[in-house]
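Worked example 3. Consider a protein that binds magnesium ion.
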Amino acid sequence: MNAAQLERLQEQCSRLRLVKSRERIEALLQEASSQEIPYADFLDRLLTEEVAAKTAKNITMRTNLARFPFVKGLEVFEFGYQPSIDKKQIQQLATCHFIEHGENVVILGPPGVGKTHLAVGLGMKAIEAGYRVFFTTAANMIAVLTRALSEGRLEEKLKHYTVPRLLIIDEIGYLPIDRGGANLFFQLISRRYERGPMILTSNQSFGSWGEVFGDRVIATAILDRVLHHAITLNIRGNSYRLKEKLKAGLIRSEEPTTTIN
Ligand code: ADP
Ligand code: MG
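Given these inputs, the predicted complex is written out as C-alpha cells:
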C-alpha cells in the first residue's frame, strides 16, 4: 500500500462518514499485513470498531436530547440500601418490555429514596435499546404547556411531549397544580394514553392526587388512564441523601430522620 492509496482510502471513509474507520484504517492495515491477518478478520475488526463508535455517538446524542437532570445508571444504584425495591422487578423493567407493551411505570415514595435515579436509569436503558426518551418535571411541563397555550402553540408543544417513545414525568406532587395546569396535564396524558409509555414519579400516594391536581374529577381521569396499563413501585425507606450526610459526618445518626430531606 502506498501513501496515495492510503490517502484515497481515508478520503473515501470520510465521504462515507466512516469517522472511526478513517482514524483506524492505517494502523489496522499495517497490523493485518505484518501479522498476516486474514482479509475477513481485518474487515470484521474495522467494521466492528466503526459500528461501536457510531452506536456510542448515537447513545450520547440521544442522552443529551433526553435532558436528564443527571446521568446515573441502574448499575450504580445500591439496591441493598432500599429493600422495598425489588431488584428483579427493576431488572425486568430494564429489558424495556414495558415500552414494547405500552405500559406505564409509576414510582411512588418520599423524597430522596431514588425515584429520579431509577427513572433516569430506566430511561438510559431505553436509550440503549434504541428508543427516544424525554425527561421533564411535572412543573416544567405544565409551565411549558401553559406558555404554549397563551402563545397559540399548544398543539406543537403537545406533540413535543408525545413524539418521544418514552416520556418521564418526574416530581408530580411537589408543587401545587392549578386548574388550567391540571387540564393541560390531562390533555397530554390523553394523547399518550395507550400509545406512548411513561414513567411517572410522585411523593404523593394516588389518594392524594386529587389535592395535587386541585380537582378530584381531573385527578381521577388522569389516574384512570395512567393506571390502565401500569406497574406501580412503592418505595418505602430512608432518604439516600441522609445516608450520604451521615457518612460525611454532617449529622449524627440519632437526629430524627424526618427533619432531613
Ligand atoms: P428522589 O427522586 O426519590 O427524591 P433521587 O433519585 O434524586 O431521589 O436520589 C437522591 C440522590 O441519592 C441522587 O443523587 C441518587 O443518585 C442517590 N440515590 C438514591 N438512592 C440511591 C441508591 N439506592 N443507590 C445509590 N444512589 C442513590
Ligand atoms: Mg426526585
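Take a moment to read the result before moving on. The longest strand covers residues 166-172. The chain has two domains: 3-64, 67-247.
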